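Q: What would this chain look like folded?
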Amino acid sequence: MTIKKELTDLDKDRIIEMAWEDRTTFDAIRLQFGIKEQEVIDLMRNEMKPSSFRM
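A: My prediction, written as structure tokens:
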């Protein structure tokens, strides 16, 4: 069972950094922050410039 919490700006930055790295899996992000792969993608889409997200 995962517990949803409000993400701080620091959490968001760390999630994006982890997702950007090829060595960090979405499962690792889910275990640490409690958000699923699609939620990570949505976060990145909302927080990043479109050109950066496409990269």
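The helical segments are 9-20, 26-33, 37-47, 50-54.
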